[in-house]
Amino acid sequence: MLKFDEWCLGNGKVDLHFSLLNPCKIRLLTEPSSRSPSTFPHDTYYKTPTYPRHSLHFHAQNYFHFSSLNSHSMASPSTWNLSPKLFLVSLLLGSFVVASVGNLYQDFEITWGDGRAKILNNGELLTLSLDKTSGSGFQSKNEYLFGKIDMQLKLVPGNSAGTVTAYYLSSQGPTHDEIDFEFLGNLSGDPYILHTNVFSQGKGNREQQFYLWFDPTADFHTYSILWNPQRIIFSVDGTPIREFKNSESIGVSYPKNQPMRIYSSLWNADDWATRGGLVKTDWSQAPFTASYRNFNADACIWSSGASSCSSTTPSSTSTSGQWYSQELDSTSQERMKWVQKNYMIYNYCTDTKRFPQGLPPECTATTLS
């Protein structure tokens, strides 16, 4: 295991190359128009204080690089200055926002932060704050085994470099399952990076990353996870950005047996989050604050070893149950392809340098989008 500062500091331009002999070689990118995000995948251990934070050490299996990005999959960092055509499409995408108001007192509990996490406005708003002493976090009171989870977030504004806002589903233990949204902060004027990952039986390394087609700090936006026995769909404002299908038929494990809680945290990750740790958190900007509202879970609640849903379909307590067998229709698939063509900046399924012996088996057109 190597110390971070032994392999992740360099000069010139940045590139990341994965190999067993040379896990990470970094060159500092100088042209903003061609800069790819320099970040490292991680798991629950880096998101909550329940586990030790290995701030300077990374396991070799968790390194990855971005040199395989090609021009048609690389979005410009100036993603908020859209062309008229893309601007019109983004307006149409934004019209699909749907949110249900929930009481955050009822659904969540603050788990750490010494008062830096607050539930306000009679349960309508939750805020997480980060300063030089500590971050903060919360978790759901319920565990879920399949469902459609929606939450509106407004991210840390201004210079958010070094900060990470994590919002995810996770079980516990060394063979945990996990479905991740993580928002990697950046310098003022540069876009956030939306990092997604799927863990099953403790195995992750399924990263896809995106820029967003709007400023996620100016207003609230809805981030959704649809998780059923056939697929996991990540959506932003009702627009699907990623689909991970059940590929057990070809030997790929799928999260379907472990109930998961919802977790969220705001914390300092300036040892890796922004340009591979080369840009540090500016503590003069603290406290950093992220806000949450309009939580909705149309889901199977797991309690006392049993699900609130039957073995095949959600119970009548589910508001619709349509999510349990939902798949992307042709219109949704086209919208997802539009996002991936214009805003995806990393896809593990195209990273042949990271997987020189062959891409993971799920990385085919029929099993993963």
Automatic annotation (TrEMBL):
Q: Which UniProt keywords apply?
A: Apoplast, Cell wall, Cell wall biogenesis/degradation, Disulfide bond, Glycoprotein, Glycosidase, Hydrolase, Secreted, Signal, Transferase
Q: GO MF terms on file?
A: hydrolase activity, hydrolyzing O-glycosyl compounds; xyloglucan:xyloglucosyl transferase activity
Instruction: Share an example GO biological-process annotation for this protein.
Output: cell wall organization
Keyword Cell wall biogenesis/degradation assigned: yes
Tell me which EC number(s) this protein carries: 2.4.1.207
Pfam families, A to Z: Glyco_hydro_16, XET_C
Source superkingdom: Eukaryota
In this protein, which residues make up the domain named GH16? 44-292
Where is the protein found, in the record's own terms? Secreted, Cell wall; Secreted, Extracellular space, Apoplast
PROSITE patterns in the cross-refs? GH16_1, GH16_2
A single GO CC term for this protein reads:
plant-type cell wall
Q: What does its PTM field state? A: Contains at least one intrachain disulfide bond essential for its enzymatic activity.
Hey, which family's this protein in?
Belongs to the glycosyl hydrolase 16 family.
User: What role does this protein play?
Assistant: Catalyzes xyloglucan endohydrolysis (XEH) and/or endotransglycosylation (XET). Cleaves and religates xyloglucan polymers, an essential constituent of the primary cell wall, and thereby participates in cell wall construction of growing tissues.
Name this polypeptide is given: Xyloglucan endotransglucosylase/hydrolase
Biological source species: Vitis vinifera
